[in-house]
Amino acid sequence: MKRPPRPDYVLRQAWLLVRASPWLAAVSSLTIALALALVGVFAMVLFNASQLLHDLGRSLTLTVYLRENALDTDIAAVQAKVRTHAGVKGVRVLTADQDRTRNTKLLPAELLQGLDEAAIPGQPVIEVDLNADLGSRADVDTLSAWCKSLKAVQSVEDAEFGAEKLRLLFAFVEIARTIGLVLTFVLLASAMFFVFSTIRLSVFSRKEEIEILALVGATPVFIRVPFLVEGVLQGLCGSLLAAGLLGLLHLELLGLIRDVHMLNLSATLLPPGMIVWLVLGGPLVGLAAAAVSVGRYLKV
Amino acid sequence: MIQLYHVSKRYPNGCDALNDVTLRIREGEFVFLTGASGAGKSTLLRLLLVMERATEGQILIGGRNIHVLRDSSVPFLRRNIGVVFQDFRLIKNRTVFENVAIALEIMGLGRKEIERRVNQLLEGLRLIQRAHSPVTDLSGGEQQRVAIARALVNEPAILLADEPTGNLDPELGHDIMQLLIDINRRGTTVAVATHDAYMIEHYGLRTLVLHKGKLLEDRPRVSVRPGQDVRPPPSPLVYGSPLAMQPPVAAAESSLASAADPDAVEAP
Q1: Which one of A193, A234, B152, B203 is most buried, counting C-beta atoms within 10 A?
Q2: In chain A, where does the domain assigned CATH 3.30.70.3040 lie?
């Protein structure tokens, strides 16, 4: 009967392989840790930025300024048009007087001294509470297009919801994502190269042992598995190191937001699914690199 | 047990290492393979271990034609053929125990079973005191005994030895030969490649003489030769295994019957 190698035997052999060249193994693990930590930092930034944009989309207000001479029927028509949009949560209509009163409250008392109340601007306004699902810049563009269609109505003077600021935020997120992807690719490729080289050296240093194992009847799987596990161990060390670094960074970041900037924000480390992938990422990178190296250099 | 029919081995450079060799080694037999350097002794052993494939002819081991054996089945055949080399081929960074245990580790046996069998064998070979020493700390004779222990621990039907005394002084060489003869008396088929004419003469066992890849002569066993140790084996070598307790032919047959069938080969 074909029996797989005992796990304790495989782990012991893999550990011996790691111990045989500890510095190389350490460099491989550190490279994996660095690559994964960077992936984690970018993922953290992007995840929190996306969360922020998502929250912004949920509490977005579109202000439709109507012309001063707009009639009640015009206001009702615009209101009806606004309500047809799926993402509209609520609509408030302010008359010109209500708008003036609100503006008066917004202005500082020094500015209002000696000023005729009629000089303070006021016009009919429709304030629209949106529940927009802003996942990308395209969603902002869709909302902008709708906003533009409102502007096209004759009784509407202007309509705006801060589209430019949102576009800027999305551009920032997209640039960060691109830089993150390129750096991640380069660092993961370097990490894989280090593991690949370490395993190759392990295979060369054990050439005689491999020949002996084959002579006494070891199957190729039995001979190869310890080398693959060596790669997985290097990757696991890298993953755990990266997770530790990210945890520390997260704590520092939270302290900075709360204590230094007095902001009532709560930055999330990463969603649990991504943390699991981060921890699994190292062993997977190690396994993939080891598999390539073993496939290329360990001929049984 | 081992049958060769018109076996030839030609290397890509045109060199004929073996040329139309036909021979038969029976179960439980002890055979010397001899000849000058380059005669084809080692090539013959390499073909039996399927380290190389014959260019022509058929090789049968335990009735199985290894010429048509799939690569994936080769490890399972090798588990039934113990092998000993002149340079011992021990794993240098492991202890005596680990070197012997490896032949059982590859079969996936449990740790306790491995400990039991290895310790029993090391006890029998007077190596138990050195069980946890690195093999590099051992003398040449001790290292060769470790190699023999590794070859025997999974109770193979056949033991092949390539110049097993070549690196040892005559006294140690004699000890190793006596050990191989003891092993043979317990039913294992033994083939020893050597160019030591004195040893062949001394033991008077069946001898196959190779010359330039051809089988030149098949000298039969001389029943009793002067000076030969013909006493019953007093050595403390203990197998304690079902294979060792069986009559040689039955043991060999049961072990090799399905060597090429991975699912049928298992540690006894």
Answers
A1: A234
A2: 57-162
The distance of Cα B58 from the centroid of its chain, to the nearest Å, equals 20
Instruction: Tell me the H-state helices in chain B.
Output: 41-48, 74-78, 96-105, 111-124, 140-152, 170-185, 197-203, 242-245, 248-256
Interface contact B216, partner A, CB < 8 A: no
| Residue B121 Cα, gap to closest chain A Cα (Å) | 17
DSSP A4-63: PPPHHHHHHHHHHHHHHSHHHHHHHHHHHHHHHHHHHHHHHHHHHHHHHHHHHHHTEEEE
The amino acid that residue B128 corresponds to is I
Question: Order of strands, edge to edge, in the sheet holding B2-10?
Answer: B16-25, B2-10, B56-61, B64-65
Answer whether A191's CB lies under 8 Å from A157's CB: no
C-alpha span between A201 and A20 (Å, rounded): 10
Write down the domain spans for chain B. 28-53+70-256
Tell me the CATH number for domain A57-162.
3.30.70.3040
| pLDDT averages per 10-residue partition of chain B, 268 residues | 92 90 93 90 93 93 89 92 91 94 92 93 89 93 91 91 85 86 90 90 91 90 58 40 35 43 35
Q: What would the pLDDT profile of A241-279 be if each residue is shown by its tens digit? A: 999 998 888 888 888 777 766 666 666 767 788 788 888
Return the SS3 of A88: strand
A145 shares contact with chain B (CB less than 8 Å): no
DSSP, collapsed to helix, strand or coil, labels residue A214 as helix
Cβ contact B263:A1 at 8 Å: yes
Q: Tell me the angle at which helices A22-58 and A220-255 cross, rounded to the nearest 10 degrees.
A: 50
Strands A125-130 and A88-94: antiparallel
Q: Which of residues 200-239 of A touch B (CB under 8 A)?
A: 208-209, 211-220, 222
Q: May I ask the CATH class of domain B28-53+70-256?
A: alpha beta
Q: Give me the sign of the Cα torsion angle A274, A275, A281, A284.
A: negative
- Measured CA to CA, the distance from residue B125 to residue B193 in angstroms comes to 22
What is the C-alpha separation between B41 and B37, in angstroms, rounded?
8
**CA distance readout (Å), B99 to A54, B113, B130:** 63, 16, 12
B65-73: long-range pairs with CB below 8 Å, 24+: B66/B260, B69/B260, B70/B260, B72/A219, B72/B262, B73/B260, B73/B261, B73/B262
